[in-house]
Design a protein that fits this description.
Elements (H helix, E strand, L loop, with lengths): L1 H14 L15 E13 L2 E5 L6 E5 L2 E2 L14 H12 L3 E11 L2 E8 L2 E2 H7 L4 E2 L9 H14 L12 H11 L2
Length: about 180
């Protein structure tokens, strides 16, 4: 009897249109935050989002890695400032939806930023202002993000105007080695 009741409850929950995790959670475990207004753009892959009536949080754009901007006496990469400017132009002051992955990176939430239904993380790669961050990509985003990067490479957009741009993860690794 208990088993039948549990099965019936599970079926009803699945048919109700409410995600399995309750309000704000996708059936696959991702958190579909309501988003908010982008109040700051730190660089080409990090923004601050302030939900209406909520506390602001920093969000690292999932699945991409933009060129580094200058920080505390450390020079940035070519196109770092341009990537930050492009993201600022796209989202600063605008209301966005955020699909949080549940991960954190250096005390930042990690998520996909959606503006009018458009995945801006993928769009930054498509415009040539970020690499697809293969090390952190998972399905179903792998082919879309890699395809966006490839499209930018072929069209020589953004950082792909350079013949051999250095990925940010190599730039950071070189900085760490230089400090030893």
């Amino acid at each position: 009897m208990k088993r039948t009741a549990l099965i019936a409850a599970a079926l009803l929950a699945g048919l109700s249109g409410v995600p399995a995790g309750g309000d704000g959670a996708a059936a696959d475990g991702r958190n579909l935050a309501s988003g908010g207004r982008v109040t700051r753009v730190w660089d080409g892959d990090t923004v601050v989002i302030t939900p209406q009536g909520g506390k602001a949080y920093t969000c690292r754009l999932y699945g991409i890695d933009a060129p580094e901007t200058p920080k505390k006496g450390v020079p940035g990469q070519p196109y770092g400032a341009a990537a930050a400017a492009e993201l600022r132009r796209l989202v600063l002051g605008r209301n966005v939806a955020v699909e949080l992955t549940g991960e954190q990176s250096y005390r930042r939430q990690v998520g996909i930023i959606l503006l009018d239904g458009v995945d801006l993380n993928r769009e930054m790669a498509r415009r040539g202002y970020a690499w697809a961050y293969v090390r952190h990509l998972r399905r179903p985003h792998v082919s879309a993000y890699l395809g966006a990067e490839q499209e930018a490479r072929q069209a020589r957009r953004g950082l792909w105007r350079d013949r051999n741009p250095m990925p940010p993860w190599e730039f950071r690794r070189n900085l760490c080695m230089d400090r030893r």
